[in-house]
């Protein structure tokens, strides 16, 4: 994280919250989900809270255990890193010129 006050990515938080809600609705404990997915309950908690990126394995197992019918698996697309726009060099060049003018 950039600083102690920064928030995890919104997609991590939203996805983790959906895993938690589905898990609770299905009556599955963190321990049960963690055991099936190969994670400890604290790791599951961190993913549910968005402090850790939910893994594809967790999404697959949670989707199956909680009867989400593909809805949790579908979130994996949104957890991928953002791509850098091809035009980024234009912004970086403009920023460098602006900084040089200010000095």
In short:
With 103 residues, the chain is mainly alpha-helical. The chain is built from five helices and no strands.
Please give the alpha-carbon distance between the first and last residues.
30 Å
Gyration radius (Cα, Å) is: 19 Å
> How confident is the prediction overall: mean pLDDT?
89
What name goes with the CATH superfamily of the domain at 10-80? lambda repressor-like DNA-binding domains
CATH topology of the domain at 10-80: 434 Repressor (Amino-terminal Domain)
Task: Note down, in words, how this protein is organized.
- Residues 19-59 form the HTH cro/C1-type domain.
- This is HTH cro/C1-type domain-containing protein.
- It comes from Streptomyces thioluteus.
- This protein has 103 residues and is mainly α.
- It has a domain at 10-80: 434 Repressor (Amino-terminal Domain) (Orthogonal Bundle), CATH 1.10.260.40.
- It contains five helices and no strands.
- The chain has helices at 10-25, 30-37, 41-48, 56-66, 88-102.
- Helix 1 packs across helix 3 (41-48), helix 1 (10-25) packs parallel to helix 4 (56-66) and helix 2 (30-37) packs across helix 3.
- The radius of gyration is 19 Å and the shape is elongated.
Descriptive labels:
5 helices; mainly alpha; 434 Repressor (Amino-terminal Domain); single chain; 103 residues
SSE map:
Elements: H1 10-25, H2 30-37, H3 41-48, H4 56-66, H5 88-102
């Amino acid at each position: 994280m950039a600083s102690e006050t920064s928030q995890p990515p919104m997609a991590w938080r939203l996805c983790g919250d959906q895993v938690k809600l589905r898990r609770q609705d299905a009556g599955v404990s963190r321990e049960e989900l963690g055991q099936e997915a190969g994670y400890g309950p604290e790791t599951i908690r961190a993913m549910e809270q968005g402090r850790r990126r939910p893994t594809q394995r967790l999404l697959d197992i949670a989707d199956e255990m909680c009867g989400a019918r593909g809805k949790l698996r579908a979130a994996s697309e949104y957890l991928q890193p953002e791509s850098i726009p091809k035009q980024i060099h234009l912004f970086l060049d403009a920023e460098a010129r602006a900084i040089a003018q200010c000095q």
